[in-house]
Design goal:
about 400 residues, alpha/beta, Rossmann fold, PH-domain like, 13 strands
């Protein structure tokens, strides 16, 4: 079993329907019982009583008839839960295994954007430790443009970007080190490189990729009122906030969701160059790939100072790169489970023909400076780029 997690307007529906076009995958209509079931499970220790209450909850839930009720009748729900171990994850696995069997597919999954709001109890109860997590995020600035057009949450500007950041960061932080059980997908990658992105998802779910999955005509028609499901995912929707929002609104969203935007590889627009004195450099901690030295980068007006701490050698080494010696500077955004990559090629002082490279596969977190703490790797790239003398 797998669960698609994402906030409303993040692409959860288009992703679910794209996957539903695969002959080996079934995703029922949005459910509404998983979070209440886990709440109940954590409060009822008596297994017999708990199973009965959970089965009644599922079969009497508002969405049951249009979701898993299309595959499993009430009596069979009770039978499956009665024979299952009394663990929320085990019960879900048993139910969705039955759905896959009824649908004659290899795997079944769930999609309900509201589950992300209560992800903490799903994590703490251990429910997600038995389930594959497909986590989709979308730039919250574009998301807010889409969300406000729906009118679902009239006061969303006041809090939703903060919720977006907190909930997505919590799920990502808990599970991003498990590539076999967790996959992060950016809506932007799905829109710009749909084939490569869907191929990665299929590999994650252990099913073959079919070219037909990219055709809007193959998507299921559960939501008759959502015409966009029958259309391609338009690249033009990426970055739409730049023309739809004013600078003040963008700054408000970024103020609420800066950490999440940076972590997921989105560039903050409201960043101005800061002049650092040599004595008080802005320090940035780069959490490098496992088993590599921890690095600190100090960006000043004249140079970059990189200090590496090697826990195995119990020592440090320091490299100084003057901007005049920088040969090239490149940035590669986050893709799939890979972190952003910042690469600096520079000449070693005193050896004009010798060029070395330092490459960070890292998520940048800031320390010691209120602005830099919000900077993404791409923003750091732009700051350094502005400080390099014109050739």
């Amino acid at each position: 079993m797998f669960i698609i997690f994402g906030t409303p307007r993040s692409g959860t529906t288009i992703l679910a329907h794209t996957l539903n076009s695969h002959p080996d995958i079934t995703i029922p209509h949005e459910t509404d019982f998983i979070v209440p079931m886990v709440f109940l499970f954590t409060r009822i220790q008596d297994a017999a009583l708990g199973k009965k209450l959970i089965a009644d909850l599922i079969t009497h839930s508002t969405a049951y008839q249009k979701s898993i009720g299309e595959y499993i009748p009430p009596g069979r729900v009770h039978e499956i839960i009665d024979s299952s171990e009394y663990r929320a994850g085990a019960i879900l696995q048993a139910l969705y295994k039955e759905i896959a069997a009824i649908a004659d597919t290899k795997i079944a999954g769930d999609k309900s954007p509201n589950d992300l709001d209560y992800v903490k109890i799903l994590v703490e109860s251990g429910t997600l430790s038995e389930i594959k997590i497909l986590h989709i995020v979308r730039d919250v600035r574009d998301l807010m443009v889409s969300l406000n057009r729906t009118g679902w949450l009239p006061d969303a500007d006041q809090y939703f970007p903060r919720f977006w950041s907190n909930n997505n960061l919590y799920l990502y932080t808990k599970y991003n080190q498990g590539p076999e059980t967790y996959l992060l997908v950016r809506y932007e990658d799905l829109a710009i490189e749909p084939k490569e992105t869907i191929e990665q998802i299929c590999a994650f779910l252990n099913v073959p990729f079919y070219e037909e999955m990219l055709s809007p005509d193959k998507r299921t028609e559960r939501y008759q009122d959502r015409n966009n499901l029958q259309k391609p995912i338009y690249k033009e929707r990426v970055g739409v906030y730049r023309t739809a929002l004013d600078a003040e609104t963008v700054a408000e969203y970024e103020g609420q969701a800066g950490e999440g935007l940076s972590t997921f590889g989105y560039v903050l627009d409201n960043v101005t160059r800061t002049n650092h004195s040599e004595g008080t450099p802005g320090r940035i901690l780069l959490d490098d790939i496992p088993y590599k030295p921890r690095c600190r980068m100090a960006v000043t007006d004249r140079r970059i100072i990189i200090t590496q701490q090697d826990p195995h050698l119990h020592g440090t080494s320091e490299s100084v790169i003057y901007y005049k010696d920088v040969v090239s500077l490149t940035f590669q955004p986050a893709r799939f489970w890979n972190n952003p990559k910042l690469e600096i090629a520079y000449r070693i002082p005193g050896g004009a023909q010798v060029v070395e490279k330092i490459v960070f596969h890292a998520r940048i977190q800031g320390f010691g400076h209120p602005k830099i703490s919000e900077y993404s790797p791409e923003t750091i790239y732009k700051i350094i780029q502005n400080l390099i003398p014109s050739k």
